[in-house]
Amino acid sequence: MMNINEHLLRTFEARPGEFLSGEELSATLQVSRTAIWKHIERLRQEGYEFEAVSRKGYRLVAKPDKLDVEAVLGRLHTRVLGRSIHYMNEVDSTNNVARELVQQGAQEGTLVVAEQQLAGRGRLGRKWHSPKGKGLWMTLILKPRIPLHFTPQLTLLVAVALCRSLRQITSLPIGIKWPNDLLIDGKKISGILLESSAEEENLNYVVAGVGIGVNLLPDDYPDDELRAKATSLAIEAGHTMDRSEILVAFLQELESLYDIYHEQGFGPIKLLWEALSVSLNRPVTCQTPKGLAEGTSLGIDESGALIVKLQDGTVTKWYSGDIQFSS
Amino acid sequence: MMNINEHLLRTFEARPGEFLSGEELSATLQVSRTAIWKHIERLRQEGYEFEAVSRKGYRLVAKPDKLDVEAVLGRLHTRVLGRSIHYMNEVDSTNNVARELVQQGAQEGTLVVAEQQLAGRGRLGRKWHSPKGKGLWMTLILKPRIPLHFTPQLTLLVAVALCRSLRQITSLPIGIKWPNDLLIDGKKISGILLESSAEEENLNYVVAGVGIGVNLLPDDYPDDELRAKATSLAIEAGHTMDRSEILVAFLQELESLYDIYHEQGFGPIKLLWEALSVSLNRPVTCQTPKGLAEGTSLGIDESGALIVKLQDGTVTKWYSGDIQFSS
What we know:
- The structure is a homodimer.
- Chain A has helices at 4-14, 22-29, 33-45, 69-75, 94-103, 151-170, 224-229, 233-237, 243-264, 267-276; strands at residues 49-53, 57-62, 85-91, 111-117, 135-142, 174-177, 181-184, 187-199, 202-213, 283-288, 291-300, 306-310, 315-318, 323-325.
- The first copy, chain A, is α+β, with helices and mostly antiparallel strands.
- Chain A folds into three domains: 4-62, Winged helix-like DNA-binding domain superfamily/Winged helix DNA-binding domain (Arc Repressor Mutant, subunit A), CATH 1.10.10.10; 69-276, Bira Bifunctional Protein, Domain 2 (BirA Bifunctional Protein, domain 2, 2-Layer Sandwich), CATH 3.30.930; 283-325, SH3 type barrels.
- In chain A, the strands form three sheets. Chain A has a seven-stranded mixed sheet with strand order 3-4-5-9-8-7-6, with helices on both faces.
- In chain A, helix 4 (69-75) packs across helix 9 (243-264) and helix 6 packs across helix 9 (243-264).
- The mean pLDDT of chain A is 92.
- The interface between A and B is medium-sized, with 26 and 25 residues.
- Strand 8 of chain A pairs antiparallel with strand 8 (187-199) of chain B.
- Chains A, B: It catalyses: biotin + L-lysyl-[protein] + ATP = N(6)-biotinyl-L-lysyl-[protein] + AMP + diphosphate + H(+).
- Chains A, B: InterPro entries: aa-tRNA-synth_II/BPL/LPL, Bifunct_BirA, Biotin_CoA_COase_ligase, BPL_C, BPL_LPL_catalytic, HTH_11, Transcriptional_repressor_C, WH-like_DNA-bd_sf.
- Chains A, B: This is Bifunctional ligase/repressor BirA.
């Protein structure tokens, strides 16, 4: 059964551009005019915009950009990934919700996607800005059949799938910065945060958090600092994009690479990562436990570590951290 | 302030072997005779045994073996490990309690130890039999400063520390079966279960569960199957042992190896593990994802995997599983 909000929306949508009087709406929906007014206010809080003119009534002028989950499920041709979608308006962090779901027995491929994250997290304990309706803020539950020490390979796999699907849809020159940030012209458009849980050498599960800045405009960033470092697909392409199309493309690409990974191992993924990377064969610096290190990035190893030739000629590996490109 | 149970126990302990009348106890503790009777019943439920003779009163004949936490803290010379001890009478699993504590912000070195586990868990989803007062059923919270993919080294480190401390105290011929079971003459006296949580390549925490069969006697095993596979220090040594002494020795040995590991890496730990292992240079079989495999164990690698020469001459690695010795 439709609730009154939905019924009200359908009524407006059936007569686009028209003013509907409180009297007429009250008669159609069989509720009082005061109730109509309350529901219009509620819809306004959800992002719907109404014009109200006395004696004429209300007119729907704008709808919030809500992810169309029905459309996603209708177009999606995956076997496992995204077959179950938990769509939420607002969460603290989709990774937290996914971790709770997995404790309750959620299956592999379960997707949590939210219009807004109030406490979205990025790598290295950083905040992740996730404004309402402007991006894809989501987490996938994965239960890969690999030993624990291969887990870092997964984070590279997710970055490759995301980079390939976004390039395909947008044709933008997107590259991967080690280990898993996606950049356009040095500005970040997406980040990945994998959290894993293991018992001895057996991986129990991974929650793979992915944030994509899809339709943010310059005003959607809270300050100049973030505006200088981050960008969105809409800013780069010059027009807004359909988030459901991006989600479908990403899930399909990820499932296909995930299957290849289980069948053939890390080899093909490593090749793709290196081909899409903007981090290789150039001078880089990194804050390591031993202080600031400087060198030239040569490649990645089987554990996803960055192989770096330091200035004194020795070759070392960086396992985690935030690299900067020096020139 | 002492509660009535404690007061009652002190009164009995002050006059060992004597009968104390309900009347006298009632006068001493300033409570009714009915209250005395109720408290004696409560103590009986905790494992204290009283002889009751009409007209003479009650006599304390046996006390349950409770771990003396005060004695542990008094003797312990560690810097971090076991400085905070959560002692519990009964838990589902000490690993579960430790995981909850770490979520609430518990520090590295926090120890959970229980007299009894109702749902103790072992490797590969197995049950772990943890009867009341008969063993050390415990979990340590560790926050090692190592990348995620080194986690399997920790499980070997814990096995080495446990093996060395038990050998030192008992002089029994205890060996390590890959990866981390402790055996005497092929029978298991202890098991280890590490659970880890990571964010990307950074280990958040490890809960290291350790079960040691200290004072179990043959009747303490639920069935012949377990009796045939498991043993205890008391059975092997021919006398019961002080659990607090074993706990202190283990924590001190573990802290000292843990410090060496952080300073010098896995090298020294690997040497010790190999020296204490009963798994090397002998025919072994293992149920692997590809079926039952047979070969000769050659050593372990940096990731804790067992290096095995298969019957066809190829050398492979087993990352997890349960090896059997063939002959």
